[in-house]
């Protein structure tokens, strides 16, 4: 994408010479405005306001141990059990950098077309808070591990047009502990299980213009990080968290003052918060007020943002080079090795799966939303009807796992087992209904193949016309009342008879044959 | 050496330990060398076990049965580390010494968090100089209490008074060398990165070094050889690869065969260390040191380290900045003191009482100073400048020493040492040596005076005076007293800023007050063995009046 000429033409169109100079200076000094896309000029009411949105995404790295200690990172453990003397910042302790976290951060940088820095370093960001044991967070302020990068959004992501969001930098840093305020009244409890877990902070340029673009960017980052295994990217569990910067300006004027909205824990809330924040800022400006640079929170219930702190009361983080860690020096071979082992990225994957299996984009997206979903699909789809397999996975399997609160990563149904269920249904051995029952059984822990279950428990579909005729006859004879009302013209009773036969056969009767026989007999 | 006597069965560990405890019971009340003394029976039990091992000929290590003390800022599982804090782990160096058989006698007194040069800023009261007690001089010496020096004052006092055979201290700006000079013992600071800092309570991480205090050079070397090990728990620990490269570099001690012939030795005398405040007895002894080495055939070279005059101010920017950060963890949430007044406080003020009550005055001063220099408005004006000065001090030393600095040689693929075997490294380093103008060792004083009197040392204001340390104005005597407290660090700080090894070797007694004086030797980064070599020459020629 050519950026510079675009800025110039844009400026010529809208500004007089003197103004151009000002803007030009502004543009070069802030590196902002490099992308003003009139082709998607998304303006807000009265058709002159434009919103400028930037993101800071924190993603927990998918490493078994913490960034600077060997404590486990497993989620939902009893409070303060995954804590070492390093995590609790005991006197005399020193951080030890976890190689796995570097690998995952480098992979993320490569997947986002970032420039992995051969030399990066760590800094201390200092502030007092009870869930920050050392009184500082180790981060990469002055020399982050990756600079630059980009994310593309297009129809594959559900956007009507194409756009690109540039990434400013990716930095490695440690997570804080958790403060729990509401269990014991008047007290704050501290859980340090999360303290020291490795994060990458992905900082974008202010290249988004709508809440939808912002939401899709987060989704895209999420799917890329999942695809390469760098992060679970789970917003509910907090392994992915977002802060967003929003400003509005009149189209054709310099950017406005930005406000940061903190701690948005779902894409839905992120979009809602941006939406109301844009509206708030436009209202302020239209009423002749100024926007003050500040940090805001989002009240989900009131659907409003509210002030947390202004610039005047902002913390001075007193950044300082981390003396306990030498600079992180990577060599090119190391980066090449990670690059060579990078799995297929979401856009390529989507296109390939759609082309190869002919299933719709929606199905691919649903499959991709679960880590390992595509891999599972590709295992199960061998020699089977792709659409059937996709339906079974995305509707039957995902739905049942979700209902039972089982994560897909803990999915008890092997691809082989699911394939066996699909085969049995598709070749008419069992009905779809029985297939679903068998799936339930497998989810509950049955490790047998569907074909074995059918055989051992006699669940095979009744396709024997003679046998079915006998059963149908019996049902008709046993229910003279219903027969009478059917004869009197009450057609709904027919379905009732089908149901009775199915009941009697425990659902194993071939419903098609039952229909035919009953129609003949009645 | 005690360990030789032990192994030759001329003395038992039990006797050694008993002697140490007897010295403690006799003198510690006056010296206040300890914050915590080990239970005598526990120590004796260990001594008995050591004796058994010696008798069976299956000793644990080079220090089996040797009584040792640790400065209170080393984490030890067995004894509390300041007040009642029980660390759940041992410092790496403590583990290494215990594995070698050392018996812990106690934890020694120190300036709080290592901040001080007189051991007057201890929460447990000052440690005093033992020289009046142990001196065998016929002439009466001034009996007024004098400081043991800081911040490892308790360590120096415990070694000098025979309460132990060696002590581990820490050296951030001279904290083992200064008390060693005052108390008349060896105070050795290895190169930064040689000994693991894991388990050493941090003051200023980029300057903190494990230090060794002993009664002779050989003991210091023995302990150094045990604790100088790579430790993956300390990321600033010198890597095995760098250690092996360093070991292959040419150095004076490897090429010199005859101890009495130092004709190949080049000794640097930095002119910037000849400061106004230097007292006559020290000046004279420094000159004696120079003529001694000359008499052994060494070439004496006047060298210049022009950045030295900025080292002290730079140190007082960098060390407090790191301290303000390192000490942020003492918030009373997980361990340590917690003020009763800190509940029911507004969030922003949560730690005010805990930290105000918990820290001593000097610590608070340095935290405030460090917090200030790190704020957005002053970071560039102070911290960055101080970092630059630190680089200048380092390159001053690099340009003076004959031996190349191994840290600068192996950085990347363009280095001549990249992918070379040890013989090649030796060869190349020989070619890189500044044969004709570099020096092998630098000799300077350690302190500007002998141990000050305790009453003169109670300075409460370094802030107002630290910048004027080189001032030649006619300041009042009263002001000088405060100035001296900080000028005292002036000779020792450069080695910390540069990370190079330095040692204080007792070399004489002041004819004025009868108190000991040490001389400081410094060598290039990683050249500890040359340092020991020359230290032994000074040690063997201790100047007696």
What would your notes on this structure say?
Chain B: Subunit of the heterotrimeric GatCAB amidotransferase (AdT) complex, composed of A, B and C subunits. Chain B: GO terms for molecular function: ATP binding; glutaminyl-tRNA synthase (glutamine-hydrolyzing) activity. Chain B: It is an enzyme of class 6 (ligase). Chain B: The active site is at residues 71, 151, 175. Chain B: Keywords: ATP-binding, Ligase, Mitochondrion, Nucleotide-binding, Protein biosynthesis. Chain A: GO terms for molecular function: ATP binding; glutaminyl-tRNA synthase (glutamine-hydrolyzing) activity. The complex is a heterodimer of chains A (522) and B (545). Chain A has 522 residues and is an alpha+beta fold. In chain A, α11 packs across α13 (432-443) and α16 (480-487) packs antiparallel against α17 (492-504). In chain A, β13 and β14 (259-264) form a beta hairpin. In chain A, strands 1, 2, 3, 7, 8, 9, 12, 13, 14, 15 and 16 form an 11-stranded mixed beta sheet that branches. Chain A has helices at 4-14, 17-30, 45-48, 99-111, 211-227, 267-286, 332-340, 346-357, 361-368, 373-380, 386-403, 415-426, 432-443, 450-457, 465-478, 480-487, 492-504, 511-521; strands spanning 43-44, 49-60, 115-116, 119-120, 123-126, 136-139, 146-147, 150-153, 163-174, 178-180, 189-191, 198-204, 240-250, 259-264, 294-299, 304-310, 320-321, 328-329. Chain B is α/β, with parallel strands linked by helices. Chain B is 40% helix and 11% strand. Chain B has 20 helices and 11 strands. Chain B has helices at 2-7, 13-31, 40-56, 92-99, 131-134, 153-160, 177-183, 217-227, 240-248, 252-255, 280-295, 308-326, 352-358, 361-374, 379-400, 406-409, 422-432, 477-487, 493-498, 528-540; strands at residues 34-37, 67-71, 103-108, 166-171, 186-189, 209-214, 266-270, 299-303, 441-445, 502-509, 516-522. Chain B has an 11-stranded mixed beta sheet with strand order 1-3-2-4-6-5-10-11-9-7-8, sandwiched between helices. In chain B, α11 (280-295) links the parallel β7 and β8 (299-303). The longest helix of chain B is centred in the last third of the chain and has 22 residues, at 379-400. Chain B is globular, with a radius of gyration of 23 Å. Chain B starts with a helix and ends in a 5-residue tail after the last helix. Residues 459-477 of chain B have low confidence and may be disordered. Classes of the chains: A alpha+beta (522), B alpha/beta (545). The interface between A and B is large, with 29 and 42 residues.
